[in-house]
């Protein structure tokens, strides 16, 4: 029983970690190097994340700079950023790519808040899937007479409490991210 609960907690922790990563990639008007994490550049035939082939710096609150270690990849990095859904036009001076983050409009803030809600719902679904798997293991143990019926019921209650606590964490993370996105 303890093993089932531990596995469920690990699965739910992974869902929360994935949500935090997804939230970090949502740009909020402030420069954040993590917005580039999903962008891949064709680096000699291998799709490579920008942060693995360039120095990404935040010199000021509304500016990111990308300085590829291999200067011949400057155009490829710029093209990958242009092709992404960031909505930022990079400027290239031959050595460094500058990404100015404009102040977000109210409409764009609402779109980003909706995106955050989508990420949070995906995380809730992942948590509920972990709950379903844990309950299935408990049922399987009960049917195989490995887990007494009372213990199985207690185990299901513990899994539900665990699920509720993780869904609450998701709601708290969403509320914090939404406040960050909507603040000017």
From TrEMBL:
A Pfam family reported for this protein in Swiss-Prot or TrEMBL: RRF
Annotated Gene Ontology cellular component terms: cytoplasm
Domain Ribosome recycling factor: 19-182
Coiled-coil positions: none
Signal sequence bounds: none
UniProt GO molecular function: ribosomal large subunit binding
Subcellular location per the Swiss-Prot or TrEMBL entry: Cytoplasm
Keywords on record: Cytoplasm, Protein biosynthesis
Database matches in PANTHER family: MITOCHONDRIAL RIBOSOME RECYCLING FACTOR PSEUDO 1 (PTHR20982:SF3), RIBOSOME RECYCLING FACTOR (PTHR20982)
Family indicated by similarity: Belongs to the RRF family.
Protein task: Responsible for the release of ribosomes from messenger RNA at the termination of protein biosynthesis. May increase the efficiency of translation by recycling ribosomes from one round of translation to another.
Full protein name: Ribosome-recycling factor
Native organism taxonomy: Bacteria, Bacillati, Actinomycetota, Coriobacteriia, Eggerthellales
Gene: frr
């Amino acid at each position: 029983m303890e093993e089932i609960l531990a596995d469920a907690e690990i699965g739910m922790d992974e869902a929360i970690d994935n949500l935090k990563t997804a939230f970090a990639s949502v740009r909020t008007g402030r420069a954040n190097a993590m917005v580039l994490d999903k962008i891949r550049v064709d680096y000699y035939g291998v799709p490579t994340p920008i942060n693995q082939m360039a120095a990404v710096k935040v010199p000021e609150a509304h500016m990111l700079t990308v300085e590829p270690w291999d200067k011949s990849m400057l155009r490829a990095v710029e093209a990958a950023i242009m092709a992404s859904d960031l909505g930022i036009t990079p400027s290239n001076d031959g050595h460094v790519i500058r990404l100015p983050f404009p102040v977000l409009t109210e409409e764009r803030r609402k779109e980003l808040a909706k995106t955050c809600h989508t990420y949070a719902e995906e995380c809730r679904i992942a948590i509920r899937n972990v709950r379903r798997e844990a309950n299935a293991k408990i049922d399987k143990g009960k049917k195989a007479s490995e887990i007494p019926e009372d213990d199985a019921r207690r185990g299901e209650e513990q899994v539900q409490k665990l699920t509720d606590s993780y869904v609450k964490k998701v709601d708290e993370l969403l509320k914090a991210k939404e406040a960050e996105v909507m603040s000017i």
